[in-house]
């Protein structure tokens, strides 16, 4: 596991860009962190690295947003999902296990559905406002 610190939105964006450069088609990344921790910010950096020019927003209400880039990006938010049964009803298997990169915010709500090789990004807010970002399964 690698732990990094970010002191600003720009640093979080840059870290996301570096992560996006090492992701491959089929990768699934679980994004965990409290509201406002920076999950969408780091997603914006990943999207930039994948050549996506669209504006990346939190998919809290759409649940799944799809973007075309050098690799398709599927940005999912499980915040409003009550459990694995509701997730299965979304019918996103083709996206999740396809040839794109899947970013899943609030993934702890569907942990049992994720593959063993799922990569994990944990973001926590420190008392001084910095973000501690832990990477599991991602080598920069």
Briefly, what is this?
The chain has helices at residues 9-22, 39-49, 84-89, 93-96; strands spanning 2-6, 28-33, 64-67, 73-77, 101-105, 119-125, 131-136. It is of the alpha/beta class and 140 residues long.
- Strand content range: 25-35%
Shape type: globular
Could you report the average pLDDT, rounded to the nearest whole number?
92
Please state the structural category: alpha/beta
Rg over CA atoms, rounded to whole Å, is 14 Å
Helix and strand pattern? EHEHEEHHEEE
Strand order of the largest sheet: 1-7-6-2-5-4-3
Output the keywords.
single chain; alpha/beta; seven-stranded mixed β-sheet
Describe this structure in words.
The protein is 25% helix and 27% strand. It is an alpha/beta fold and 140 residues long. The protein is built from four helices and seven strands; from the N terminus they run E-H-E-H-E-E-H-H-E-E-E. It is globular, with a radius of gyration of 14 Å. The chain has helices at residues 9-22, 39-49, 84-89, 93-96, and strands at 2-6, 28-33, 64-67, 73-77, 101-105, 119-125, 131-136. The mean pLDDT is 92. The protein has a seven-stranded mixed beta sheet with strand order 1-7-6-2-5-4-3, with helices on one face.
């Amino acid at each position: 596991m690698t732990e990094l610190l970010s002191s600003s939105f720009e640093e979080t964006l840059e870290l996301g860009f570096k992560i996006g450069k090492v992701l491959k088609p089929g990768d699934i990344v679980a994004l965990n962190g409290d509201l406002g921790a920076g999950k969408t910010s780091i997603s914006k950096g990943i999207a930039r690295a994948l050549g996506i020019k669209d504006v990346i927003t939190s998919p809290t209400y759409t649940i799944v947003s799809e973007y075309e880039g050098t690799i398709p990006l599927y940005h999912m938010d499980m915040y409003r999902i009550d459990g694995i049964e509701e997730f299965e009803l979304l019918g996103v298997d083709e996206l999740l296990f396809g040839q794109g990169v899947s970013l899943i915010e609030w993934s702890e709500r569907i942990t049992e559905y994720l593959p063993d090789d799922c990569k994990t990004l944990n973001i926590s807010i420190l008392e001084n406002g910095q973000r501690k970002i832990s990477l599991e399964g991602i080598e920069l």
